[in-house]
Task: structure prediction
Amino acid sequence: MMMAVDPAGGPGAVTADGAARHTRAVIPRPVLMRRLGGPARVTVVSGMAGSGKTVLLRSWIGEADITEHAAWVDAGRDVPDAQNFWLSVVAALRATGPGAELVRAVSAAPDLDGWALVERLLDDLAPLKERLWLVVDDVHELDAGQALRQLELLLMRAPTGLRFVLATRHDVRMGLHRLRLEGELAEIRAADLRFSLAEAQELFVAAGVELPGPAVTVLHERTEGWAAGLRLAALAATGHPDPQRFAAGFSGTERTVAEYLLAEVLQRQGERVRRLLLRTSILDRVNGELAHLLTGDEGAERVLQDLETANAFVTSLDGARSWFRYHQLFAGLLRLELRRTAPGEVAGLHRTAAGWLAGHGYPVEAIRQAQAAQDWELAARLLAGHWPGLYLDGRFGAIHELVAGFPAGLTATDAGLAVVAAADELARGSLEATTRYLALAERELESLPEAEQGKARLQLAVVRLLLARQQGDLTAVTEGAGRLPGMAELVGSDPVAPGLGENLSALALISLGSTERWAGAHDDSKRHLERGIELARRIGRPYLEFTGLVHWATEMPRSTATDKPRSIVAEAHYSRQAIELARRHGWTDDPAFGVACSTVGAALALQGRTNEAEPWIQRAERNVRTETEPAASLAIRYVRGLLEQARGRDAEALAAFQAVEPLARQIVSPQYLLPRARAQQVHCLVRLGQAERARQLLDGLSQADRDHSEIRIATAGLRLAEDNPGAAHSELAQLLAGPVPVGLGFRLTTVYVLEALAQDRLGDQAAAETALERSLELAEPDGVILPFLLSPVLGLLERHAPHRTAHASLIAEIRSLHAGAEPVPRPPSPGPPAEPLSGSEIRVLRYLPTNLTAPEIARELSVSPNTVRTHVKNLYAKLGTNRRAGAVERARALGLLAPRSGGQAMPASTASP
Result:
């Protein structure tokens, strides 16, 4: 049975042995129709075969109700010569209302002159008063020597009432650039003609085909919005028992699609072009050099450029038009045709392409080509050799896909492939499988040629380092990081991975620094992370820079309360840098992204901004798996506890802090957050009225643990709850012994809040007010409000008269939060000041929101007015303003001052994680 398919007419436009045509599925496209009816004198509709040009134009004529004013001419293969074309134009114009009265009839004659006929039409149409459209379909079929030039003459000299709509598969040479410059040309291109997902859904519904949403999405992606492809898919899907399976398998090999593409595209090309299309169809993308290698055609790049210009299902991928790809359905047909016509050449083409791609820096594509050739030895060698670079670029999805492309048993017998499989399992969170593959790789190493053993041992050492880092084993990480650069030097220069030594040095530094960070080795961590991030930037490894920034932004541990804390605003700023880097490169599923989100969430929780903190912490919890990232998961549980404390949900906070204990046991090296979590458990128990449980928890600790600053702070809180302010003061005095620098932070603020409460209960009001003012001074720059929410300090704050404090706005904010208000979000702030503010400048800054003059501020600070003016001048320069009000607003935006009542203290990004 013969079947003719008209994809432009929709899935119903099918005849089979004279069967009646079904209803045409026409989808309204109002945006395109408005452009067709716009003010331009000439509109060009250009797109590949089956892109819906004809259906769009006929629908527009009907929707606009201009049937009597639109002359339709099909310049298809039946009338490409000038005479037949102009006879068709005259007939079409005479069939319209305005044209019937103006255009004279003409008869065919052997010597009919097209030029003379155009002049005659111009005379006939000169009196035209009404709007009249001449729609010419398939303009690309016209004779370029005569008909096109004559049509150009008509375009340029036609009366203003005559409008032209030209539908073509590719651009034609008609001097339209002059109209474009004059603003009289409208263009609807292939990208405009592509159906959106919503339009594709409408098409299937209109065609009576019921498909679930995921199936429509797949078909839309496969067809790339190509109208004919969607209509052919609807035709093929009619009555299919499993629409989802049909959508998954739909490709250029579908009979209806193949017939259409063969007839309309492939068979219309010359032998040279067909050979190029077929032999390069094995590639996801192709350039002239690679096409030349596969075909022997030195002019391959020009052929590809011409095909793209002709809208022949070829699309350029760069501005230089040097790389191209084929439409998915067209590529599927070409591959099928290649296997049918030259089955013996396919594997060789894949192998040749693999060699070129590997040698030109395209390892993933090279490995895929080797796998397609089923040359497993070549594919394994390429993957093992290129894995370090792929890992360092954060291309974990590509690595997993390539590993999955090998036969099941091969990874167990190939040492290099086993190492990559171990790294893949580690990235996917299976520590057991990672260990198993590492053991297999170790066993198979001896079977490798001696020249390859050094490289395999180096890669094995890299994966072992990554495993140790994930387990928080500082000893193993330190040993592994120390060995890597030396091993890289022994392997020598590798053309596959140039600069391997520097790459692995950056990896070693960042791995070491991040593990030290979790273990609490502050100074070493800072030094190693700084060097690692700097090196990663210099050698162009953004993934290493991203992971380094994440851990650099994680709060630095302090051994005593007198250590100068780092601003949580700075920590959140670095985390947002890392988050932006991850979004730019597609690493938002990486566990490190979750750690960065938790840092932003922690800063918001410390500021009492619980509604804003929640989505950040939720994203962190989704990204990090407890069983595979215990150190990161421990930190996120701790942050969750802080958030629940800020909400006043002490039972939930207690559960979160208790969950830290079993996670800490999974980490080989000591974890600096563990004593903090235990201290917070004490605070939660005190707030829950369970002082006895809090005492039992403290009694169960060793003396060394009880001497930890965090535990001392918690003990002081318990003593206050037991109405023993003297004991609380004694605990705090040991922390505050010695000089206390100007600093910021949650713990140091908490120390002074508790000291203020202790002194107040001991009856020393002056000492209480001094300690309270100090706590406010520490909290102000970052808006660290949580210590004031967790302690019964409200009454003391209310007695702290405004004239005795430089922090009246912060007190108002704290009182507002105690009353249950949520701070009002503010827009994202700019980055930090160009230069850090000095301690003296910060003290002056505190007074700028007041109405005090410079001499009055000087008296408050016991300095000269000139000193205050100098500090103010420096503040203006660093904050980028020349006004007092501007400096205050900028300082609020940066978190250097508390917000106005109801405002926000931290410049945390308001964007969702």
About this structure: Residues 8 and 54 are 7 Å apart (CA to CA).
